[in-house]
Amino acid sequence: MPEGLRGTVIFDLDGTLVDSAPDLADALDTLLEERGHKALGLDHARRLIGHGVAELVRKGLEARGETLEGLDLAQAVQRFLKHYTQFLSRKSTPYPGAAEALTELRFSGWRLVVCTNKLEASARGLLQDLGLLPAFALVAGPDTFGVAKPDPAHLLRCLPGQDLSKHPAIMVGDSEVDVAAAQAAKLPVIAATWGYARVPLADLRPDSLVNSLSDVPSAVERLSA
Ligand SMILES: O=C(O)COP(=O)(O)O
Ligand SMILES: [Mg+2]
């Protein structure tokens, strides 16, 4: 951990920092329509986000009666990504208070990283388009270290050489996958209620439950005290 830094705050991306569902939904609908299916729409797509792109495509197609596996699924994912690259930040917006919360945390001496099940290139592109990329020391997708949430290793690989007894690490995420990964890694977790969780987050017993990104810096202070 570089001199003077207090620890690391690990942010999830989709549903936590950025409302990216509208663009993911449009890319999925474009894929569905070109395969002869009816579009699924935003509300349905939102419920499929959090487990990575292959899962989004697999479940989206399944909802329209098409079951794909192996190479066929991989090809559909490539096609989806081709569309998504065009849509990346067309409708996606940072959640209110994102830039301010990141600035406040950095000012207080926190190293910030993104740990997402979005592919690293998509995550970087989206953060860049929205002006948030410079805040982060690291952006780790499932393809960065070859491991994905809920595997705790995805989080722990974002903390190289960090002595957690001196420099804490705290996870902030919107989904059951984030809470599970943090709990398995034995890291405190702040659950973001504005995202795409499919279950009531309170049931997962996060260390803190917040209703706005502007509440994250104080929750981080409380959990690291
Ligand atoms: O792309 C996804 O499925 C989810 O990405 P996230 O881990 O940033 O929520
Ligand atoms: Mg998320």
UniProtKB/TrEMBL annotation:
Pathway field: Organic acid metabolism; glycolate biosynthesis; glycolate from 2-phosphoglycolate: step 1/1
Keyword entries, A-Z: Carbohydrate metabolism, Hydrolase, Magnesium, Metal-binding
Function: Specifically catalyzes the dephosphorylation of 2-phosphoglycolate. Is involved in the dissimilation of the intracellular 2-phosphoglycolate formed during the DNA repair of 3'-phosphoglycolate ends, a major class of DNA lesions induced by oxidative stress.
Family: Belongs to the HAD-like hydrolase superfamily. CbbY/CbbZ/Gph/YieH family.
GO molecular function: hydrolase activity
Name of the molecule in the record: Phosphoglycolate phosphatase
InterPro entries xref list: HAD-like_hydrolase_sf, HAD-like_sf, HAD-SF_hydro_IA, HAD_2, HAD_sf, PGP-like_dom2, PGPase_prok
EC number: 3.1.3.18
Residues at the catalytic site: 12 (nucleophile)
Binding site for Mg(2+): 12, 14, 174
Swiss-Prot/TrEMBL cofactor(s): Mg(2+)
Top-rank taxon: Bacteria
Originating organism: Albidovulum marisflavi
Catalytic reactions of this protein: 2-phosphoglycolate + H2O = glycolate + phosphate
Keyword Hydrolase in annotation: yes
